[in-house]
Design brief:
Layout: E1 2-4, E2 16-20, H1 27-39, E3 42-47, H2 65-68, E4 75-80, E5 85-90, H3 99-113, E6 117-125, E7 139-143, H4 145-158, H5 189-198, E8 203-210, H6 216-230
Parallel strand pairs: 2-5, 2-6, 6-8
Antiparallel strand pairs: 1-3, 3-4, 4-5, 7-8
């Protein structure tokens, strides 16, 4: 359930929604961090649900001492009204037995809010690619039939590669076996995409093949790829540091080594 920050819920009609999937390397979440921080987006509410592991913390986008102590929750909504852009940032893993329930909650909220389109930023295990997926760029996309009606030409002009379907049983040649969509390490990405196809929702998945580790370069690659389509920034290729890194990234790998160890 969406809970607004004040008594007057914001109108999100015809906004574009960008959200991450909790997936390998947390690349989608890091990319969303860059969007919220760079565009100085305003928090307008949060998603109240028992499907996410409960947690709370300080403001990840603080710019001064005064706002650093604000309490933030696992699923929050930010907006940039001038761009008609909304972002749902998810900071906690989904409870394993409640994945389907969480997908249903998100789909219901998307329909109730009237978003013009939804974009899921995700990632998938690089080591589980098949031969065709190892060629060229590690970036892929998926789009529901509803989204293709409005954006097929734009995606074609970008020259993006669609996520390939793979053999049901790799290594076996079975004439009757249909290739299937497989996104290992992608969390709810495949399920949310399938649900959106069934509900006729305009939704796209933009994902990157990667491995666990320092995934900051992957986040920049993913957000720049998204920017080629949505034009959130004018031309980030001319200024590599134009994306603003949030203060919370200083502790991505924990605090420093305690001097007392030595």
């Amino acid at each position: 359930m969406f809970v607004p920050s004040d008594n007057s819920p914001p109108s999100l009609e015809d906004f574009t929604l960008v959200m991450p999937a909790v997936a390998v390397g947390n690349v989608g979440q890091l990319a969303v961090d860059l969007i919220v921080s760079t565009l100085n987006m305003s928090r307008v509410g949060f998603i109240h649900t028992d499907c996410l592991i409960p947690m709370a913390g300080n403001n990840p986008y603080s710019t001064c001492k005064e706002d650093a102590q604000e309490l933030h929750t696992p699923a929050e909504v930010y907006v940039a009204p001038e761009l008609k852009l909304a972002v749902l940032q998810i900071r906690a893993p989904i409870v394993q037995t409640k994945s389907k329930k969480f997908r249903q909650l998100i789909v219901s909220w998307i329909k109730a809010s009237g978003f013009s389109r939804t974009v899921i930023l995700s990632s998938s295990h690089a080591y589980q690619r098949d031969d065709q997926q190892m060629k060229g760029t590690p970036l892929r996309y998926l789009a529901t039939p509803s989204l293709l009606k409005a954006s097929a030409n734009a995606l074609k002009e970008l020259g993006w590669r669609e996520m390939e379907r793979v053999a049901s049983f790799p290594g076996l040649t079975e004439a009757n076996a249909e290739p299937r969509l497989c996104i290992p390490g992608g969390g709810i990405t495949k399920g949310l995409y399938t649900d959106s196809c069934s509900e006729d929702l305009p939704l796209a998945v933009v994902l990157l093949f990667c491995s666990e580790g320092d995934n900051i370069p992957d986040a920049f690659a993913l957000v720049n790829h998204l920017n080629d389509w949505l034009h959130l920034l004018d031309d980030p290729s001319q200024a590599p540091n134009k994306w603003k890194i949030p203060t919370s990234w200083n502790l991505l790998f924990g605090s420093g080594i305690p001097p007392s160890m030595f």
